[in-house]
Amino acid sequence: MPISAPFNGTARAQRGAAKLAAILAVALLAAAGAWFALAPAAKAPDTTFTSIHGEKFTTESLRGKVVLVNFWATSCVTCVKEMPMMVETYKKYAPQGYEMVAVAMSYDPANYVLNFAQSRELPFKVALDPMGEIARSFEDVKLTPTSFLIDKQGRIIKRYLGEPNVAEFHATIEKALAC
């Protein structure tokens, strides 16, 4: 007669508890995802920008356009690498109501920013943030590049940390322009 292992109720209870924990974890993740997907987009902060040419403008004055606020630095390798794509994106979508503001970080010397913008013929607005006030108002940006895509109503619809995937970036811009 074969010898069978004794019934182990503790092991079965532990497996049941592990399954229940896994189901609860999945449910919590789904609920969190749904909340983020359905939650209203955050309003872009009311900020005043000063361009490298001394022009002052606000987030409010940009309403009605889809706007990318891009925090960057001349010393940031990824920022410099992504800038030609940002130029092409601007040229492609500006006629449809797209605007871009490239905000230089507070530690970036103004003469470096001006030289970069002129030598690369940046077609969009380039702003200085010498006191870091604009970066603080946009979720206290510290890492570059960090960009915020803002819809026509002034709501942040996407935050990018690092260089964005071009296809997804353009699709998001197109969707926002269509609204």
Layout of secondary structure:
Blueprint: H1 9-38, E1 48-51, E2 56-58, E3 66-72, H2 77-93, E4 98-104, H3 110-119, E5 125-128, H4 133-137, E6 146-150, E7 156-161, H5 166-178
Parallel strand pairs: 3-4, 4-5
Antiparallel strand pairs: 1-2, 1-5, 3-6, 6-7
Q: Structural class of the secondary structure composition?
A: alpha/beta
Rg, nearest Å: 24 Å
What's the number of helices? 5
In helices, the fraction of residues equals 40-55%
Compute the separation of the termini in Å. 76 Å
* Biggest sheet record: 7 strands, mixed
Mean pLDDT: 88
Q: Which consecutive residue ranges, at least 5 long each, have pLDDT under 50?
A: 31-38
- The number of E-state strands comes to 7
In spatial order, strands of the major sheet run: 2-1-5-4-3-6-7
Silhouette: globular
Approximate strand percentage: 15-25%
Order of helices and strands: HEEEHEHEHEEH
